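User: quick one, fold this
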Amino acid sequence: MKIAIVSYFAPPQPAVASHRVLRLTRALLSAGHVVHWVTLDPRRLDESDATLAAVTPREVVVHGLGGVNLVDRAARNVAEKIVRTVIFKLPELWPVFDRHLEWTRRLKRNLPAIVRKEAFDVVLLCCGPHGQMKVVPTLRRLFPALRIVIDYRDLLTGNTWRQSKSERLRRMLRQKERRILAQADLLCLNSADARASFESTMGAIDGLRIELMRNTADYELRHARGGSARRSGGGACARRAT
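Assistant:
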């Protein structure tokens, strides 16, 4: 299969989420799949981890979409300071998925064309930022046969540390999330607790399959006691979307 991993974070960015993308990519490549990344342009990063760059598989094709979002960097002038302040206050004023508004806009503008050109079998959105899910309805409309997988590294609704204080905004956000997830083929969560929290908060979503893909699921670990290697279903979410 030809698979696009869509993630704001990816090597060589020095971020924990970059490691998840790297490990998932290794698992998919080892299973014989072709992997592309739709992420930030490596040439426009403010910081780069040479170690991550060195271990990035050469087979990966990278589609770079711009530089670091304003929310993740220092403002360069007064206008950017004002915009940055508004962005940080926005989740308390409007039902937005997150503050990476630039990234969401870039995906909505560019991802459909990339999917059409590359003829992907699967698009796997590795969240967060969760706002990138807003491209799902467009992908579903333009490419009915495309398999769409959403990998929640962290929950959106049901995640207490990121919830708005407003019940009205939480309800609106939950409704938006449900509408988008209903158009995906598969949702991956990283723990049984996350699945229980998601299901208790969101309830059942018709047609949506849920699988567990733990943070360590895409590479081999050794048990601290026995020292034996164990492989845990690396890439299972993308495979089960077929």
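User: anything notable?
Assistant: The chain has one domain: 2-240.
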